[in-house]
Amino acid sequence: MKFLFYRPLKITSEEAKILFWSDTHFGHKCEHWSNPLWSARGFKSIDEHDNSLIERWNSVSTEQTTFFHLGDFIFGYDSFNRMNQIVNRLSFKHLYLMPGNHCSGWKQHFEKIPGNIWNLSNNKKIFFIPNYIECYINGQPIVMSHFPIASWNGQGKGSWMLHGHCHGNLENSEIGPLLYKTKTLDIGVEKYNFPASFKEIRAVFAQKPTLTYDHHNSNTQNPF
Asked: Is residue 78 classed as helix, strand or coil in its secondary structure?
């Protein structure tokens, strides 16, 4: 999949069979934190947190689902073995998986597996992708990145920007009201309790104008 570095990924599927999520942080115990992430998310332990997120994932995802996870999938020094266990519990057909900034587990598997495709049982596949990717999904141009981008490729032509990393905090910052006027969406766990579908995201962006803060507008040649 070296082409990901110079041309967009193209996917066509039923809207309900395309899902997006980010920052699950499986196994992130954060024992030194005064309020661990799993506690801030309303759980009593890291095990309850992980099991609940797996249940939420599987409640909307099936063996026919194309799933995009935008980073920080798992956390901790024992992530390699636990990642094996978790991905085999999750339902999907194809999982496009970014490393994020917490890439334990992801990095070890990526370095061990030839190429960037991990073939699992039941015909499931994981595609290791970089922290930035351009896609056409059902004809809709989408830029996905673990980190939010204020000015992205194709923005003036109506492309979307999906990101994680911020855990819902960017929205309440000084730049949040400006950034989220554009077709930008934080799809992390704090903003979406369940993975978001293509249909759900399309409905959100249908209420937003095609707005850009740079010189690229609808007259600019679409770089995709």
From this structure: coil
pLDDT digits (tens, 9 = 90+) for 187-197: 999 999 999 99
Residues 6+ apart with CB under 8 A from 121: 88
pTM score: 0.94
Secondary structure of 81-140 in HEC code, one letter for each residue: HHHHHHHHHCCCCEEEECCCCCCCCHHHHHHHCCCCEEECHHHCEEEECCCEEEEEECCE
Cα gap 34→217, rounded to integer Å: 46
Smallest CA-to-CA distance from 128 within 116, 111, 112 is with 116
AA letter at 5 = F
Rounded Cα distance, 19 and 197, in Å: 4
In sequence order, which residues have a C-beta less than 8 Å from that of residue 90 and are 6 or more positions away?
A: 54, 57, 58, 61
d(CA 191, CA 167): 7
Q: What is the pLDDT of residues 170-179, one digit of tens each?
A: 999 999 999 9
